[in-house]
Amino acid sequence: MSDTFNYYNKNSKSYFETTKNIIISDQIDKFLAYLVDEAGLIADLGCGSGNSLKYIIEKGYKAVGVDYSDELIGLAKNYTGVEIMNLNIEDAAAVNKFIIDNKIKHLFASASLLHMPKASFINFLNKIEFSGVFFFSLKEGEGEHVDSAGRFFAYYTRGEVEQLLNKKFIVLAFIKNEDRLGRGNNWISFIVRLSGRRG
Ligand SMILES: C[S@@+](CC[C@H](N)C(=O)[O-])C[C@H]1O[C@@H](n2cnc3c(N)ncnc32)[C@H](O)[C@@H]1O
Known about the structure:
Blueprint: H1 3-10, H2 12-19, H3 25-33, E1 41-45, H4 51-58, E2 63-67, H5 70-80, E3 84-86, H6 92-101, E4 104-110, H7 118-127, E5 134-140, E6 144-146, E7 152-156, H8 158-165, E8 169-178, E9 186-194
Parallel strand pairs: 1-2, 1-4, 2-3, 4-5, 5-7
Antiparallel strand pairs: 5-9, 6-7, 8-9
Bound molecules: S-adenosylmethionine.
The site of S-adenosylmethionine (SAM) has 19 residues, from α4.
């Protein structure tokens, strides 16, 4: 597996402790506001510690988690009390099957799609099918870089993502904010739905 995967698996306990109380409540609340008339299961893709997942559940929504680190899955399961499934979100076909099999309506992906190469992210956007609302956040910047811990990151500009979303998606909201851990980078988040949705 990749160095990014190894990082999350090996550092799961410290990563869990550092992030479990960091809640991007402003962004989550904006996402949830689009769901008011649309009940349905939410999947948190790359849920990590389960921080957002716990917040979403406590707001009264039904949600499950997805991650590829068994170590983080164990910790997040214990923390949230809901089901967390092991799935590689880079595999868009597997995510689509997971959505159908589990009757997932909405997708939430905070700081997770940025770990896949841009080519995989483009493939993900081209292939993904769902009937509800989709939130995702990315680091703002350019290119692809590996950090000092060996984690792979793809960086995006707003215009670049809007071009990738193209005609397949309708952008409901764009949000930009500073990093909460003070790492000096900005985050860009998108709330979208499919333009030709059937749901
Ligand atoms: C930066 S953390 C974000 C965690 C959480 N969503 C948050 O906002 O705090 C990225 C998470 O995505 C998971 N992840 C990265 N690539 C993945 C992949 N290809 N498939 C499944 N999970 C992945 C990692 O294990 C980690 O839990």
